Amino acid sequence: MAALSAVVFALSWWLGLYLLIRNPRKPVLALAAAGLTSFAAVVALDAVRLAGGADIVGRIEVYLVAVPGIAWFAVLLELSRPPDTTRGRVAEMVAVAAVAVVALGGAALAGSVEGPLRAGHWVMFAAVSVPSLAAMVRAVRRGVKPVPVVGFLVIATLFFALGNAILVIPLGLVPSWLALASTGFDVALLGVAVAIWDAFDEGQALRADMRRSFIATAVVALLFGGQVLVGMAFTGERTALVVLLFTSLALAIAINVLADPLAGVLDRVAFSRSPDLRADRATLRRTEAALPRRAPNPLHDVDDETFTRLTRRALGHYGDLAKLMANPLTALPVIDDRLAARGAPDQPLERANELRALLAERIARLKPRDGGDFGTTEQWRHYNSLYFPYVAGVRAYAQNATPAGLDPVARQAWQWFVTEVPQRSLHNWQTAAARVIAADLRSDLVSARD
Question: Into how many domains does the chain fold?
Fold first, then answer.
C-alpha cells in the first residue's frame, strides 16, 4: 500500500512543480500547482495516518483534502476567462473564498477524515464538487482552446467529483489508498490538461519537455524512494520509515524539477561579486530550458487569431531571448532571409535575436512621421505602448519603479504613463498594436508562401 501511495505522491508532486516552473507568474499554473502539491501532501499524510494510527494526522488531513478541490475550482474559473482581457478577478476571488470558507467549515464539522459519515463530510463534498462542476460547464461553454483540453476538463472534473465523494465521505467500502489512487488519476489528468493549455497559449511544444522532466523524475524517485521501500519490505511499514519515504521523494523530485532556480540561488551565493557571470549563467540556463519547447513546423496552417496571439506573446517577451527562442515566429521565412543576408548560422539563439530585431523594426514603423521623438496624441498610442515598455525598458507600473537610468525621452514617457495612462488602457493599446504588427508579419508570410 505504501508503494502505491508513493507512486501517486511522486506523480502529483512532480506535475505540480513542473507546472509551477513553467511560469510561476501565470495564475492558472500557480493555482494548478497548488492543487497538485496539496493533493500530494494529502497522499503522504494518509499513508502516515494508516501506518501510525495517530488521531492528530486525521484531524489535519480533513482540512487538506479540501485544498485541491478549491484550487481546481479556481483553475477552472481562470480557464474560462476570455483571452487578453483586463477584467479584474474580484468576482472570481470572492467565489473561491466563499467555496474555501464553506469547505473548511465542513472540515471543522467533520473533525476527521475518517468515518463514520457526518454532516461535515457532506458539506465538504458539496462545497468542492458542485462549484467545480459549474465552473467546468462555464469553461466548456466559453470554448477553452485547444479543443482536446475541453475533453480533459470534462472527464477529469467528473472523476474529481466522484473521487472527492469517496475521499471526503469515507464509508469504509473502499480502502483509503484506493480512493487516493483514483483521485490521483483525475488530478494528473487535470494537470496534463493545464499543461496542454499553457503550451498552446504560449505557442510551444510540450511533449519533449514534459517527457524529459518525467523520465528524470522517475529515475530520482526510484533511486531515493526505492531504497526506503526495500527497508520497509524487511521491517514493515513503520511510521518513521513512511515519513522518510515521502520526505525523500519530495526533496529528490524538488531538487530535480527546480534545478534551474536552485542553481540561481547557489550562483548568488557563490558568485556574489560577479553579477555579469551570474547573468550569463542564468541566460544559458533559460536558453537550455527553452530548447525542448520549440514546436516543429509551428506556423503550418496557423489561423489569424493564433498568429496574433503569438505576436502578442513575442512582443511581451521582447527582452527575454530564451522565451523568444521558443516562440513559433522564429520560423518566419523572413527570419531565414535575414540570417542568410548576414551569413549567420541557423541556430535557435540567432533566430531569437533576428526575431527581436524584426519586432523592433516593425515597432519603429508605428512611429508617426512628424519628426518628433515623443507625443501623446492618439496617433502615437500604438508606438508608445510598445516601444517604451518593451524596447526602451520603461516599467511605469512596476512596484517601486523610478525613471532612474532612462534617457530624457524615456523619462518623459515614464511620467506620462504614470500620471495620465491607466494600466488597463496601456494593455488595450498594446493588444491593438500587436494586431497591426501581426497583420504586417502575416502578409509577409502569405507572400513568401505564394
Answer: 2
